[in-house]
Amino acid sequence: MWKPDYQQFRTVLRGGKASRPVLFDFIMCDQMQEEFVGPPADDSVVARIHRGTLAWQAAGYDYSMVGGLGFRFPVNDAHHDGAQTSAINETQVVADWEELEGFQWPAPHPDTLTWLEEAGKMLPEGMKFIVIGPNGVLENATQILGFDTFCIKLYEDPELVQTVVDRVGQCLHDFYAVVLRSPYVGGITSNDDWGYKTQTFLSPRHMRQVIFPWHKKYVDLAHSHDKDIILHSCGYAGDVFDDIIGMGFDGKHSYEDIICPVEEMWKKYHDRICIVGGMDMDFVCRKTPEEVYQRARNMLLLTKDEGHYLLGTGNSLPNYVPRPQYHAMRQAAFDLADTW
């Protein structure tokens, strides 16, 4: 175990060589946080941020991931038959211009900076916050319109789609502009899932035309504050990976073996962008702790000299991740620290 040091994290993210391995994961579920440090002192936003901070520190990360800052887009959250997920057509709240007129666009919560200030004063020395957006441009726009309607309107009424995307994009920009003002925030994630296993949700042409301009604005905004920005995007991105690099993201997160193993992604792209995470979720869940440990160790040794890699799972830390396998991944980093 080591003391948190956001500068180590930033060094790797920006292409330098840290003095030890560095970890990254996107979200840590409440249950896992409680296993590390217990429940929050109360149900306030600040108490939950602080509990999360202690959990991320206990697990060996140099940052604390922060979400739930009272900013989200109003969509239809009705779930079917008690399921924990819903189809992306079920969330639809806007189908035409008339319904768009009545849509209530969100704004950053007025207490956002106060919460970050209060929680930031309790940050362990060396740590910073990374703030998660409430999903991204494409995800929120398709939830508002419903995926089928979004795709149909791209051809039948592209102005409606562009208007929704631009309003979503500006709302997210307003949110990031607030959180990036905090001295306790080291960076942000632009988290926006873009693809299936074999292709992007939209054609690369439409991604470039409709979605990417806003992500470029977030990159420029973060860098104007001298802060970091990581793209978290699930699914196939092979046809647009050069676009991701061209937009200027410091790192790209979320990889699946069935699409392309992270080892291959690092070999292909690490000289142009930081490869983040990538220990495939299915692999971590199905293989033995020994197998997870060895793959994580091998990945660290593969990337040690040239860098630009942060060790973590392919996606996040939900309840169903087996704890022995997760801890084995972390242990591979700790065991190599003294010889780094």
What does this structure look like?
- The protein has a domain at 67-248: TIM Barrel (Alpha-Beta Barrel).
- α6 (137-145) crosses α8.
- A seven-stranded parallel sheet has the order 1-2-3-4-5-6-7, sandwiched between helices.
- The chain has helices at residues 6-13, 30-37, 45-59, 97-101, 112-120, 137-145, 147-156, 158-179, 204-224, 241-247, 262-269, 281-286, 289-303, 323-336, and strands spanning 63-66, 128-132, 185-191, 228-232, 251-253, 274-276, 309-310.
- It contains 14 helices and seven strands.
- It has 340 residues and is of the alpha/beta class.
Brief summary of the model shown:
This protein has 340 residues and is α/β, with parallel strands linked by helices.
Please describe the topology of this protein:
Layout: H1 6-13, H2 30-37, H3 45-59, E1 63-66, H4 97-101, H5 112-120, E2 128-132, H6 137-145, H7 147-156, H8 158-179, E3 185-191, H9 204-224, E4 228-232, H10 241-247, E5 251-253, H11 262-269, E6 274-276, H12 281-286, H13 289-303, E7 309-310, H14 323-336
Parallel strand pairs: 1-2, 2-3, 3-4, 4-5, 5-6, 6-7
Helix pairs in contact: 2-3, 3-5, 6-7, 6-8, 7-8, 8-9, 13-14
